[in-house]
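=== Per-residue structure ===
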Amino acid sequence: KDLATKGIGIFRKIIEMHNLSYRTPSCEWLTKEWISYHEDIKQVQNILLATGIVPLICKLITFSVHDEVKQECILCAIALLLGGNIQAQSSFSNYMSNDKDNSFIVKLKEMLSKHFNTVEKLEKRSLSLNQKYSFGKSDTTAPGELPNTEAMLGSRWTDDEEEKPAESLEIARVILRFLQLLMENQNRTLQDHLREQYGSLGQRLGRSVDLITLMAEMLKSYTKWVQTNNCHFGMQLIDTLTDSVQGPCSKNQNALSQAKIEGM
């Protein structure tokens, strides 16, 4: 477990070290914080992609029994996709279209739902929606500020410990960032694939899941317990849904319309 986590982490940091201005994980970067290093980052991304790292990442996310390994793989995937890297998007698309059991997308859906539902269930236990939502004494994140991802999701992110709301929200936010980058720059193939999964020969894959509608339903739920100290999650959710319909992608627009989020 530790060897796999550290190994994938090294690949991620090989990319991130080329941003000379920041030493935080790339999932926390704003565009203005790394864009001046885009060409250097892209060059390293493409070198790593040529090694076949994407199938390794997808298999570890799908089959690893350790949450730390899956989390580090998603952080590495974000680093590879940063800037809407076309080669990275193509590599993920090729893997997913040949995933006959659709295990990778199903696993992403399970992870996203699990951590979102953790917070939702805790919120339903609250005596009032007006009651201040507690994210633990250690959470000092200012309104709208991203929490420290590595500190939040490091060794404490285990199967044996009860999830804290802030940790679960940050895990879900990171997954949403990954999904956003898959679709960035109006990648129609992946916009469609996250709604309904088909194989390379046009066959519908088993256990097809609709991540677009899932995210829309999450947004509807989130608006009922939004707070200033969790708005970073809400902003990422909206950003991901926005990328899902750009182009425009009419089928994803229809999915959001059917989810009835336009009146929120």
Remarks:
- The chain has a mean pLDDT of 88.
